[in-house]
Specification:
Layout (H helix, E strand, L loop, with lengths): L12 H12 L18 E2 L1 E8 L5 H11 L7 E8 L2 E8 L2 H5 L12 E7 L14 E4 L5 E11 L2 H10 L10 H10 L5 H9 L4 E9 L3 E5 L8 E6 L2 E5 L2 H6 L3 E5 L4 E5 L6 E5 L11 H6 L5 E2 L2 E2 H15 L6 E4 L4 H12 L7 E3 L12 H11 E3 L8 E6 L6 H12 L4 E6 L12 E2 L7 H4 L2 H8 L3 E4 L2 H8 L7 H4 L18
Parallel strand pairs: 17-20, 20-21, 21-23
Antiparallel strand pairs: 1-22, 2-5, 2-11, 3-4, 3-5, 6-7, 7-8, 8-9, 9-13, 10-11, 10-12, 13-14, 15-16, 18-19
Length: 506
């Protein structure tokens, strides 16, 4: 396949066990004393980045720029692996990109021709360095020969891990990323492309992977394209692969296209430039719809669709679906704001940016008491009272997951003197968990799986409540070929019969 510059328009058991304590207090969400809880959003598990060049570049700095752009996909750990003159050097640690890379010793080691990187969102209780990425494999001389970074979740990881362990393979982590790594390593005698193909034919689920050997670069994507992966180029000698196009912009690369479902892109000793190989023909792209609703940055383009435009259109569409008389429209920062602007454009009701977000509170912030939890949402979102008092307000949010934060937000608005509150969610009701690489609560903890819309309206204590319909979301996205599993319980990949005993690939 020619890669010239042309644009194309379950939780694992391990993770669940560790996450359970964090959710335990709020499992019975209808109770009045729930308060605000910091884990009330679906979270993307990670971002991946890769760059290959045949000319001298400051890959160390460029990899940081790429990961900076993907920081929203994971804030708890990050790392890079660099191929430099036949050797692979790796550094990874807990913390933000700026923190991890500011005190690197011997940075010249990381100035190689090829680099991959990873930002990680970890589950509670699983902040172990052995699960930080990129992962790497060594030869008998203790030299790193292979390194990968992965976004997604394998649904057959438990089975594959057991098979490999029975063959004598020793695992050093609890992540299913290592299953991918060991399968590629096991099959390297088939050549790099052959090893990746053999691995893809074994693994099931959702995955976007970038990787390097001591002299090659590669990337590949699952047969349904559930997790995003885009291709760009800085020049004819320098290619970039990343979870989102905003990372291409961050390193000065031009968006070329999205990596196709079932596609391997790789470098070869015998062929110039970046090569492409389709492991399976006629794959249907089923990219996660929630990438557009919440996960991706608004300045990203995925599968030829701009994220900001989708969010603005969703606000316009929910006005068409559920109009209401009101004085102002407000959006919950950040992903709710474009939708609120769209709602305002369609309705003529003025948009007011009156919810102020504090951007300096970490996701893993632990709140020990109910009293302190009640302060937490005020720390994250605080209203400009003078703009709201005695007003009829439409509040636009990207989604309602557990409902606890939404309920506390409504209370904040009422304390600000708001006269009426009309709540609009620009995603359909979330009724099922994701087992394909998203950090979601169990079905028992998803409020829309356990309450009707009228019951939820009463629980939130709002004057009206509406969700964007799946049909309208499909219309906005322009195709039914997306993963809508959390809305419909219909997944493009078979739901595993039991939870895997490995961590998600993050």
């Amino acid at each position: 396949m020619d890669l010239e510059f042309q644009k194309y328009s379950t939780l694992s058991k391990y993770a669940f066990q560790n996450r359970y304590q964090d959710f335990e207090e709020t499992r019975n969400f209808p109770k009045e004393d729930l308060g605000a809880y910091p884990f009330d959003k679906m979270e993307e598990e990670c971002g991946v980045f890769g760059l290959h060049s045949t000319q001298e570049l400051d890959t160390f700095s460029l990899s940081q720029f790429g990961l900076f752009a993907l920081q929203h996909r994971g804030q708890e750990a990050c790392g890079i692996a660099v191929g430099n003159k036949g050797k692979i050097f790796s550094v990874k640690d807990e913390g933000l990109v700026l923190d991890v890379f500011k005190t690197i010793e011997e940075p010249e080691q990381f100035m190689g021709s090829t680099v991959i990187g990873h930002t990680r969102y970890t589950t509670a209780g699983d902040k172990k360095k052995y699960n930080f990425q990129p992962f790497f494999a060594k030869n008998e001389y203790d030299q790193i020969i292979l390194s990968i970074a992965h976004n997604g979740n394998l649904t057959n990881a438990k089975q594959l891990r057991k098979e490999l362990e029975d063959e004598g393979v020793v695992f050093r982590a609890t992540s299913d990323t290592e299953v991918i790594l060991r399968l590629i390593q096991k099959n390297l005698d088939l050549g790099l492309r052959g090893a990746i193909k053999a691995t893809m034919e074994k693994i099931e689920g959702a995955y976007s992977v970038v990787g390097i050997t001591r002299n090659k670069f590669f990337a590949f994507r699952d047969f349904n394209g559930i997790r995003p992966l885009v291709l760009g180029a800085i020049d004819e000698n320098t290619f970039v692969v990343a979870s989102e196009s905003c990372a291409l912009d961050g390193v000065g690369a031009q968006y070329v296209r999205d990596i196709l479902p079932g596609e391997i892109v790789y470098t070869s000793d015998n062929e110039k430039g970046l090569q492409s190989y389709l492991v399976k023909e006629d794959c249907v792209n089923r990219i996660c719809a929630f990438e557009y609703i919440y996960f991706a940055r608004p300045d990203s383009t995925l599968e030829g669709i701009n994220v900001h435009e989708v969010r603005e259109k969703s606000g316009m569409k929910i006005w068409e679906q559920a109009p209401v008389d009101a004085d102002i429209v407000i959006g919950v920062p950040d992903s709710g704001v474009p939708a609120a602007i769209g709602f305002s454009k369609a309705s003529g009701i003025p948009f007011r940016p009156v919810l102020i977000k504090n951007r300096y509170i970490g996701r893993s912030f632990i709140i020990p008491s109910q009293e302190m939890r009640e302060h937490f949402v005020n720390l994250k979102l605080n209203p400009i009272v003078s703009e709201m008092k005695d007003k009829r307000v439409v509040i636009i949010d990207d989604s309602i997951v557990r409902g606890t934060t939404s309920k506390r937000l409504v209370k904040i608005l009422k304390n600000a003197g708001v006269k009426e509150i009309h709540f609009r969610s620009v995603s359909p009701p979330i009724v099922a968990p994701c087992f394909l690489g998203i950090d979601t609560p169990t079905k028992d903890d998803l409020i829309s799986a356990n309450m009707s819309k009228d019951e939820l309206k009463d629980y939130l204590a709002v004057d009206s409540l509406e969700f964007l319909t799946v049909e309208n979301l499909v219309e906005i996205l322009g195709s039914p070929n997306h993963c809508f599993g959390c809305f419909t319980e219909k997944y493009p990949v078979k739901n595993p019969d039991e939870l895997a005993f490995v961590d998600q690939g993050d």
